[in-house]
Each structure stands twice: as C-alpha cells, then as structure tokens.
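Bumping my old thread because nobody answered last time. Still need a sequence for this structure:
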C-alpha cells in the first residue's frame, strides 16, 4: 500500500471469545425503551414544574438531556435506514427528531455520507474545519468552543454551511427541494411552539422540558462526536476513531441508552449493522499495529485523551502530509 493512500483497517486476528452472537431482544428494543423513559421523565418534569418543585425539576431535566442525546443517536440510526424496519416510519422518526433538534433529516443523511466515504479527509463535511490543514488554529479553536458549548445551534449551522456553500456535495435537485421543505417546516414548528408558550404563559414548561435539556443534549452530542474523532490523525479506521468498551455496569447502561454508539469503530467498519449488533463485533476494535488505538474503558478515559488534543484540534492523516487519498476509510 502506498504511503499516500488511506485505507480501511485490516481485520484483527480472530478470537473465539469475541465471535458475533444474536443480540438480546432488550438490546434490539433500546430505542423504544429509551423513548419510553424520556416520555416518563418529561411527564415527571411536567408534574414537578406544576407544583414548582425545583428539587425534582433540575435532576429530571438532567436525565431528560441524556435521553434526548440518545434520541439524537436515533436520528443518526434513521439516517442509515436502520431505526425502523418500515422506511416510511424510519424517515418520519428522523424528520420529527430533526424538527426538535433544528436539523433537516434529509440534509443530515446526505451530508453524513461524506463522513463515511471520506472519514477524516478534507471531503468529510462533518469534521470541518479540523480536517483542513489550511485552517488557522485560532479558527479551529473558536469552532471547537462554539460546537462543544453551543452545539444545539452550531451543528445545524455547520450542516447549513454544507448545503449553502459553493460546490456543495448535495447537488440533487430532488434532495435540495426536500431539504428546503424541511427547513421551512422546522421554522414553522418552532414558531408554533413559541406562540403556544406565549399564549398560555407556559414558558417555564418550554424552558425546562425542551430548551434546557435540549441545549445540554446538543452539547453532549458534540462532546461525543469529538471523543470519536477529534485529535486523531491516523490513516485507518482504528487510528482515526476512539471507541469505548465499558467495563462497568454503569458504562454498559450508558452504552445501551446511546444505542451502542460507543462501539463507534465497528460502525465505521460495518456501517450496515443495526446498533444492537455492534457489540458483537467488538473484535474489530482491537489494534493491529502501533498507530491504532485500543478501545477505552469509559468515556472519562476517552475524554481525558481528547482534552490533550483540544489545544490544536485537528483530524485526518493529511495533517501528517498524507495527501491525495482516494480510498475511503469506510470501504470495508
């Protein structure tokens, strides 16, 4: 393999302890279980707000933010067509979650293809500007700050940049027309929600049941994205991705509520797998050379590794002079 070509990570040696197995039905039902938990939490929030019991409001809002973060991963699953067996219901779920998170589902689905086809390379729209060696460090730091602490607004703006910029990779007139329809729908949806809050005086319900947990969830989404890729300049999937295999029951519960997204390297190597099957391929996460990263034991360990990279945030082997890459990292 030429040094200038990035390629998929080779398969590690077979280990019978890591052979894929049929996921438990609970694992397959993670999304509806999580949605049910969110509905119950929001119901509790409503009751606590009604009685002005803020000792309950604050912890319930924090729980809701984590579950909303899980819903954002459901949005990602829907973009791969794997949230529901029915294509219609899958897309309806994706559009609805997108409306709540200020995101066009169709725009995300079209742009997300560049992330899988060109992971970490300059054509990866989701990792701009960290994948551009021409981008000054001060600008990359500014973008990292706004994304990590104002993710609810930064993320939609980043995807709008992909859609509106010159030479956008989203060229299909049919796709662009649907994106515009969804964008207008998002504006109308939130205008109605704000109008209802104003007419009924229900601002505290809007604030605590939607905006505050949604704002936190947007930041959690950004931190998870950065944990997965930012600061890595490898030339294979395992050297360009941080993955997590939890070794505690709390870590495994977090993984469950995040639809097994911590097994992120598996997702990049086997993008067609439903989320419930990702843990069964954890063997794919173990390194085969010194450049590649072993999976982390927890998000706290992975965040510790990420934080050391935020002084000069960058992504992709092009920062090490490996240019002209044509082979997709996700081409396995």
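Sorry it took so long. Here it is:
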């Amino acid at each position: 393999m030429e040094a200038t070509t990035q390629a998929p990570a080779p398969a590690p040696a077979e280990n019978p302890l890591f052979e894929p197995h049929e996921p438990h039905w609970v694992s397959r039902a993670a999304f509806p279980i999580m949605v049910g938990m969110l509905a119950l939490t929001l119901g509790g929030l409503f009751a606590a707000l009604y009685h002005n019991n803020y000792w309950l409001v604050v912890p319930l809002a924090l729980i809701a933010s984590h579950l909303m973060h899980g819903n954002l991963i459901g949005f990602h699953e829907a973009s791969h067509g794997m949230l529901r067996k029915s294509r219609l219901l899958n897309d309806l779920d994706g559009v609805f979650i997108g409306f709540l998170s200020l995101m066009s589902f169709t725009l995300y689905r079209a742009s997300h293809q560049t992330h899988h086809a060109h992971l970490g390379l300059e054509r990866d729209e989701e990792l701009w500007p960290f994948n551009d060696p021409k981008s000054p460090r001060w600008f990359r730091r500014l973008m990292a700050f706004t994304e990590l602490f104002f993710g609810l607004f930064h993320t939609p703006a980043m995807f709008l940049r992909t859609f509106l910029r010159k030479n956008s990779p989203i060229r299909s007139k049919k796709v662009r027309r649907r994106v515009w329809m969804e964008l207008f729908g998002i504006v109308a949806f939130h205008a109605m929600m704000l109008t209802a809050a104003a007419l009924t005086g229900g601002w505290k319900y809007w604030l605590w049941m939607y905006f505050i947990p949604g704002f936190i969830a947007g930041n959690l989404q950004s931190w998870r994205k950065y944990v997965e890729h930012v600061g890595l300049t490898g030339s294979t999937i395992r050297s360009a991705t941080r993955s997590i295999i939890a070794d505690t029951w709390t870590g495994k519960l977090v993984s469950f509520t995040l639809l097994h997204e911590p097994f992120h390297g598996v997702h990049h190597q086997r993008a067609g797998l439903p989320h419930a099957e990702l843990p069964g391929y954890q063997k794919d996460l173990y390194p085969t050379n010194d450049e590649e990263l072993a999976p982390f034991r927890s998000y706290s360990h992975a965040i510790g590794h990420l934080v050391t990279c935020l002084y000069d945030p960058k992504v992709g082997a092009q920062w090490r002079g490996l240019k002209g890459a044509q082979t997709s990292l996700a081409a396995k």
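The mean pLDDT is 91. Let me know if any region looks off to you.
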